[in-house]
Design brief:
The chain is an all-alpha fold. The protein has helices at about 10-25, 30-35, 45-65, 80-85, 85-110, 115-145, 145-165, 170-180, 185-205, 210-265. The mean pLDDT is about 75.
Amino acid sequence: MNYSCESEPNSNIILGVLLCIGGIVSYIPQIYSLVKTKQSKGISEMSLLILCVGSSMLTGNTVILNWWKFDCYNYCTFWICTGRLLSLVQICISWFMVIPLYLIFLRYKIKESDRRAIYDLKYLFIYVVSLLLIIIIGIYEKKSNNNTFFQISGRVLGILSAACSCIVWLPQIVELISSKEPGNLSLLMFIMQSPGNIVIILLQILYKQNWTTWVTYVVTFIEQTIIVILLLIYKYKTYNNINNEITNTEITNTDIEKGLLDYIDLET
């Protein structure tokens, strides 16, 4: 087999590394907000569940469709092969960051209500089943060497992931519109992730990934942009309401002080 060991362009590698770092950093604001406040107010549980399931399916799709690239390690250097797999690493990192975010959210969600435990365990069961599906597909391919089934499974997982991405943030948008307040939802996380999706799409195209891999980011970009706009609107309204309350309080205190002074003048 003639295997090319030509390295990826430095620009692609730098962009890939930056996206991997960004994939980790972008989730930290929301995780920090949950840990600091110990409250899950304003965060849609359904959106996080769909995000977890969709991320696991997208990871399965990417691993399956890029499985042949792992042969590179048999012929080329570690750094050349790792550079070719940066698009896969970036997607896996996003999945790994979503898991602790969802678990931390569940911890505080269950604490807020005694009746949530069974409900949330049911959600976790659905998530575990989706992971087992990916593992079973991989084991079947290894034992049967049925590459056709393997490739079809990868594309099916990509399409299912795209379906999840089409609706992933819709429950969160509904939650925001219904409550008309940002709650503990991190604006910084969405500000970082929303434009980052465009860069990810360009990187996936540069690495010649199948459209089922990057189409999910197109839909996610649209939904996250809507959330950013809603959060900015509600945070601005909240800021104005606080300022108005402070102003009204100052006016009330001034009136009281003036009234006391007038009363003292009358008494004297």
